[in-house]
Amino acid sequence: MHTGSCLCGAVTFEVEGLLDRNDACHCTQCRKWSGHYSAGADVPRSALKFRTGEEKLSWYRTTKARRGFCSICGSSLIFDPLDRQKHHWIGVTLGSIDGPTDTKLKVHIFVADKGDYYEIADGLPQNRQ
Fold this sequence. Notes:
By secondary structure, the chain is mainly beta.
């Protein structure tokens, strides 16, 4: 079990199970949403439960997902794919997890869109898209 929250603590949640489907997304939308690249864990929808503040989540819809953030402090929290028939998971930002995550990133995605101000040098697989 992992717990997580936004910066101000208005939104709190728990994730049951392992955080083992992880990636770092370098697409333009994730970079703008997070301020850098976005590190997230894809978990089964049933594994995510909000403890407090679900009504404080605001959503921004993009072409493939809606992105959940705290309406008070602006913390990026949730990546929810629009095609729920195809995607039975929901993404949780790894930076919002309280304490140790007990996991590591597995892959970098959309590296063709990465910022020019940093290099990816951790040896993990890199997918252009």
